[in-house]
Amino acid sequence: MYAVIRTGGKQYRVAPGDVIRVESQADGSNGQIEFGDVLAISAGDGQIGKPQSAARVVGQVVEQGRGDKILVFHYKRKKQYKKLAGHRQPFTAVRITEIAYDGQSFKAPAVEKKQPERNRRRRLPRKKPRPRNRRRKKLRQRKRSKTKTYG
């Protein structure tokens, strides 16, 4: 069971339980987002078609953030023109919880929420104190090794 939805100018093939990254959207009620623009639905293998009645895809917001940085570099040769700009595209990660059409409803299996771990301060191993005048020490060692004693 899967559906093809359109949001943010892009099309996504989704199934119950999938996590997709869509263009940044405002949270709906209770962190739920409903996608009404359903282009196609497949109920079984080899069957795909446009939904006759109102179909809907519901998702739960998992995360909101910004993607990796993209560098935009403008350059004109022989003119000493260089311009560098960065861009991070905002996104919303959505877990598809339900696909409903024609009175049928396909739901994703429930995911148990992780309990936050206690904030416990970790102790780092103690470092040995750095010897002072490390550079002088090395120079002395080099001088000693270079000088030869003839006996």
In short:
The protein is mainly β and 151 residues long. The protein contains 1 helix and 10 strands.
Uncertain runs? none
Number of strands: 10
Please count the helical segments: 1
- The averaged pLDDT comes out at 84
β-strand percent reads: 35-45%
Major sheet description: 5 strands, antiparallel
Distance between the termini: 92 Å
Helix content: under 10%
Rg over C-alpha atoms, rounded to the nearest angstrom: 30 Å
Can you walk me through this structure?
By secondary structure, the protein is mostly beta strands. The protein contains one helix and ten strands. It has a domain at 1-75 and 84-111. Strands 3, 4, 6, 9 and 10 form a five-stranded antiparallel beta sheet that branches. It has a three-stranded antiparallel beta sheet with strand order 2-1-5, with no helix packed on it. A hairpin with a 2-residue loop joins strand 9 and strand 10. The mean pLDDT is 84.
List keywords for this structure.
151 residues; mainly beta; five-stranded antiparallel β-sheet; 10 strands; elongated
List the helices and strands and how they pair.
Layout: E1 2-7, E2 10-14, E3 19-23, E4 32-35, E5 38-42, E6 56-66, E7 70-76, E8 81-87, E9 90-101, E10 104-107, H1 134-146
Antiparallel strand pairs: 1-2, 1-5, 3-9, 4-6, 6-9, 7-8, 9-10
